[in-house]
Amino acid sequence: MSGEREQDGSSVPDEVWAEFLRTSADGTADAPKEPSARAREVTARIRAVPEKQTPWRAPTSSLIEPRRKKGWYVVGLAAALALLFVAVDPGDVIWSHGGDRTGAPLAQETERPEQAPATEPGGQATLAEPFRGSPAARWASGTAGITVPAAEATGWMTKAEVQRGLTRTRDFLAAAGLDPAVLRGGRPEKAIALMNPHQKDVSTFVSTALRTPGEDHDPLMLFSRFDPAQARLVGDEVRTRGRLTYREGERGALEVTADVTYVYPVAPAGGGDKVVRVIVRRETVVSWDDPSKVVTEKGTFSLLSYKLDMTNGGCGEPTGYFRPEFGGGSPDAATDGRTVDPYDRTAPLGDGDGDRGCGTATRS
Fold first, then answer.
1. What is the pLDDT of residues 215-246, one digit of tens each?
2. Which of 125, 265, 294, 310 is 20 to 30 A from 7 via CA?
């Protein structure tokens, strides 16, 4: 179905047809590259050993456009065009007015994908279309993009209790990565309230990170925050894609793993129409413990591990906020030659290698 909204009997404008032929012949241009943000991972195994901060850096973030007639003789032309579209773009051949793909939103992610999402047409993000040209244009918004699996009795928990644990884990992700007040730099009180207050090393990490962020105490490992004096969110949507999985953990606990990618469109705080996207992928593992075996509070979880990979969130020293670049580059943006696709979810986040350099993302 075409998004050109042509009336029956109308022809395609010459300039549009010329542009289609050019695109078909030349192929898609290489996506512009931009420095990715520091990607780091911290893994903390609680109760058994002190929290370990393992910094790492992997490359991460960037970007990257088709047509119908009347009568039986045009059917052949339409069929030929359809085949050509599929050859050029094997994904959904559905376009909106203005060139953006508007196929039905992707089904929820229920397992690790086998390949990265296809390149999307449409060009640069704009204030009116902040997800233009991004795979996130077809992702769901907010918690709708985070798959919660069916619950079954696990460990010390009944089926209903497992469902409650999964729901509250998703609530934590919303409070930490989607809450508008937190995104504008606020303190993530709702998220903190779901964390076991008796887990002292984690409590210390969180309080220190929010008060005096640094290399060993960066709140972005768990919470998404922007400095309102530097960047503003565009629109009221954050696109997400990911899932929860669970299993029986230590001491019969319900161990839940969340692997979610968040896409935040932002523009300069002082105004202007330059829109960039900050892409954040987090893998967080929590434990809903049996209170007869672990000191905890009702309705709270223990944090087992957390990993972060971010694109265009800033390459300098941690400030406690994502600090996207809006063009022009900076001394912090020097890259080390590595590249990565920030939308590729085919592999789990790595365990880190101690490298905190900045790589280059292939698209945003």
1. 999 999 999 999 999 999 999 999 999 999 99
2. 125
3-state secondary structure (DSSP) of residue 118: coil
CA separation, residue 332 to residues 35, 42, 78, 359, 361 (Å): 9, 22, 50, 11, 15
Residue 147 lies inside a defined structural domain of this protein: yes
Single pTM value for the model: 0.75
Domain holding 47, by residue range, is: 33-62+122-361
- From CA 120, how far away is CA 123, in angstroms rounded? 8
Q: Are 135 and 42 in contact (CB under 8 A)?
A: no
Q: Yes or no: say if 230 and 330 are a contact pair by the CB < 8 Å rule.
A: no
Q: Which two tokens stand for residue 266?
A: 């932002």
- The model's pLDDT over 36-69, given as tens digits with 9 standing for 90+, comes to 544 444 444 443 333 332 222 332 322 222 222 2
CA 10, CA 16: separation in Å to the nearest integer?
A: 13
Domain-located, residue 128: yes
CB 175 within 8 A of CB 195: no
Distance between terminal CA atoms of the chain? 27
Whether residue 95 lies inside any domain: the answer is no
* Residue 50: exposure state from Cβ atoms within 10 A (0-12, 13-18, ≥19): exposed
Q: Which residue has the tokens 């970007």?
A: 63
In order of 141, 177, 227, 251, 262, the CA distances from 186 in angstroms are 21, 12, 9, 36, 18
* Closest CA relative to residue 3, chosen from 95, 70, 102: 95
Task: Look at the block and give the residue holding tokens 């395609």.
Answer: 12
The residue type of 139 is W
- Flag whether 78 is in a domain: no
Structure token pair of residue 305: 């591990």
127 DSSP assignment: S
Looking at the structure of the chain, the number of domains it has is 1
Query: Residue 288's beta-bridge partner residues?
Result: 254
